[in-house]
Amino acid sequence: MLNDILNPINGVIWHDLVLYIVLGVGVLFTIWSGFCQYRALTHGVQVTRGIYDDPDDPGAINHFQALSAALSATVGLGNIGGVAVAVALGGPGAVFWMWIIGVVGMALKTTEVTLSMLYRSTHDPDNPHGGPMWVASRGFERWGLGGLGKVIGGIFCVTLLISAITGGNMFQAWNVGIVTENASNGSIPTVATGIVLSVVVGMVIIGGIKRIGKVAGRLVPFMCVLYLLSAGYVLILNLGGIPEMLGLIVTSAFSPQEAQGAFLGGTFGYALLWGMKRALFSSEAGQGSAPIAHAAAKTDEPVREAVVAGLGPFIDTLVVCTLTSLVILSTGAWNRGGEAIYESLPAMVQTADGTWAPEATTLPSKTAEAKRISRADWHGVESVFMLAQWGDALDDTGTNIHKVAGVARLDDDGGLYVDWTGVPDAAQGHPPVPPGAQPQLINGEVYQEYPGAALTTYAFDRATPGLGTWLVLIASWLFAISTMISWSYYGEQGMVYLLGEWSVLPYKVVYCLLIIVATLGFITTDAELDNLTALGTGVMLWANIPIMVIFGAVAMRAYHEYMGRLKRGEMDPPHDAPSIEDVVGGRDVEE
Dihedrals φ, ψ of 569, to 5°? Predict the structure, then answer.
């Protein structure tokens, strides 16, 4: 029912034209700023190191902590689960379009944070307020259109809350629940994960932005290094295949990718769609969320923090997402073979309600390779599928191949069978079987379903059995907690704008309860999950991109004025770089 409502809405929000507009705006600000990506990778790194930090500047946290708070919202399960969804559905070509969004996203992030810093409020130094809602409100007010600005700011806050609830909260909790359940072979239910996450997140967000900044400043570097070292290990094991994978990413971005193994195929448009959607969700470029965290930075130079913000999409998309995608591609997880094979192909039979499913037969044991990877045979709880053909080729995949879904079960005698749910699999967007047609199974292979982060887990396990199970389990918990605490703050700032400070505590309570709701089992597939996250990301783009375009000239004037002073040598650092320990802990800006 929920998918039936969200599908047409997302169809409008994520129309191809919207993607081209976002891409175009990113290119516009890239050129207008004179390729600010270079400044982010040079001057931005210097600022983050703390050489410009000043405890007397307005704000609450230093540049490093502001970047960490923003990254804690972006470097998360979007990098683990979101990338997996993009590759599983869009194919290798989706990664190329993630790169493009990563590059132009640096310009989008620099521009939106410049505006946020220019129009932020620091009347309460311990809790600064900033973000697109204040840009709209204060910017239009200066033009004598204060009423219009407040309305547009309110609209943005509504979209912000939608995104905080879906992508910033429920997406994270659902993925961690699934990964934890899989790692425990079903002994830890998803709702138990939701309860623990809710308590942990609640303990952090009660302390406000200063506690969030301190936690993020320590958690983000640790989890990034842990994940990058593990991914680097897998890529070293598959070093010989990396050039081929990079070539496949580029060629698949502009041409259809044929169906292989568990991959159903993907057209150029489908790769573009999934690459851009997941990169926008992961990096939040143009979404307007990160400026809320960066607005808390201690600085009297708005553009200085904006240049730091430009590092976000680079770290998130061009580094972390790329490594995840290469792990999935180089290990063959994306186009894997089946975990079990029927020696005799089951017949497709029509059920009483008119759907089609394979005939009831005993589920074969896993192959030797599948047992090596999972270190076990079937447990009787796995979601599985087989591949069948019917009808005409789909516009998205370019093939007429469809999934026939089911769940592995244990009977009363301990024997394995599959409880087939049949076709069409509406959750995957497959059309009904045409009248008079009969689906035909392509082969006897039974594939295990690995939704979201579970596919990344499986990819690491293909390299070293057990590595993915524990790495992704630990990383998922760390990434999810960091993301949820930052998105809680984003939503909190939206509530303050809409209703005032009194609404913060009720909001935090509801936010924590929704973590549990997400793990109750009503989300079951990648497509359902994408519908929720796509809604949140999409509505924010619709609200924030027009604000950026309207006030873009203001941001660019400030940017070029600052860079002019930098080139003339008027921006020399006031002191040497403080110790890394002081920067991470924020002690270099404590008064």
Answer: 80, 20
